[in-house]
Design brief:
The protein has 18 helices and seven strands. The chain has 445 residues and is mainly alpha-helical. It has two domains: 101 residues, Cytochrome b5-like heme/steroid binding domain (Flavocytochrome B2, Chain A, domain 1, Roll); 339 residues, no CATH class. Its main location: membrane. Pathway: Lipid metabolism; polyunsaturated fatty acid biosynthesis. Keywords: Fatty acid biosynthesis, Fatty acid metabolism, Lipid biosynthesis, Lipid metabolism, Membrane, Oxidoreductase, Transmembrane, Transmembrane helix. One of its GO terms (molecular function) is oxidoreductase activity, acting on paired donors, with oxidation of a pair of donors resulting in the reduction of molecular oxygen to two molecules of water.
Amino acid sequence: MGMGGQDGEGCSSSCVKPEARYSWEEIQKHNLKNDKWLVVDRKVYDITRWVKRHPGGMRVIGHYAGEDATEAFQAFHPDLNFVRKFLKPLYVGELADCEPSSDRGKCQQQAGDFQVLRRTAEEMGLFTASPIFFSLHLSHILMMEFLAWATVYYLGTGWIPTLLTILLLATSQSQAGWLQHDFGHLSVFKKSKWNHVAHKFVIGHLKGASANWWNHRHFQHHAKPNIFSKDPDVNMVHIFVLGDTQPVEYGKKKMKFLPYNHQHQYFFLIGPPLLIPVYFTVQIMKTMIARKDWVDLVWSLSYYTRFLFTFVPFFGFFGSLAVLTVVRFIESHWFVWVTQMNHIPMEIDHEKYRGWLSSQLAATCNIEQSFFNDWFSGHLNFQIEHHLFPTMPRHNYCKIAPLVRSLCKKHSVTYEEKPLYDAFRDVVGSLRKSGELWLDAYLHK
């Protein structure tokens, strides 16, 4: 590795004081399992022991070992002064004066302009949540839960009332999924602890899942989106090959766990239908038990207890489980299409060490705004703005979007936006393209 890019040319060992001043070349050596350093605001921190105590999970902070983590640090933490207290004991020195603030030649001007944009958003009050918006959102979830019960209570358990109940429950579950996402990103309350409490209530009691499990996965995704070995959302355990690089690598190695040239077809059989009712449900329960996360387990069991208590009198025990399975089946389709339409068609590759703006825009795209798209996707149609400012309340994405577009235009960063139907179609098209790349490499390389 070099000394950190063109700004560091001419830097010699004479200007580095190992006891307090470090070069990027030295810092980049500390990216091992038992030796992790990172840089925030030109200050160097040894996080080797802290990673296991990091509230967001050890992997998300570990993914920045040997790198500048300033932009990620600012993006994830709404109260920077509070978090800096935890950094003080980890301090080991600073970057040498002759070193650039960013590693590996990342664009300093782009990073500086993004900081200006962030300060502008703060001055505009865009990090302040609307209590009315989130109260109404929670209310409409609870109303659908009540209507689902009222439907079978007053209309009975015939096919039509049962289907209506299932649709109401699936919709409430999907909308609760977007709400827990808000609390998980600390974007509702000013105090983090209230976001954490609300997160456990919504994801645990209203959905039957685990807040800690979600945090562990989702923050990694935000830190390094669409990066193999760092983003768990693109770890498809050999079921799918993604992007342009992985299919060729698998093909050259003659790896054929499944016929990947047909993955755009079997995606409809094992992707949207099974992710939540099978893979996520098993993984969540297994994770809570393995990590002895009894608090989240109790929250999760409270959901299942409430569900059975509500519907067993109408459908019986096994009938209620059947209803829940169908609800999860529908919810899973909803979740997969919304979450993958912003990422799967985008660049998926190994680490390229880009700056925050470039890395997030390479991995994300937006869907056109409309009242339906906002509601249907939980405002994740503004995926770009969400990834750039994960703690920003979602009802403010539309306000910052024009400024983000201007910044992207200034730095020639592609800002991609498309209609909802095109986004769904591109998921299938990208899977087909990756499958064809795999087959070509498998047969001819």
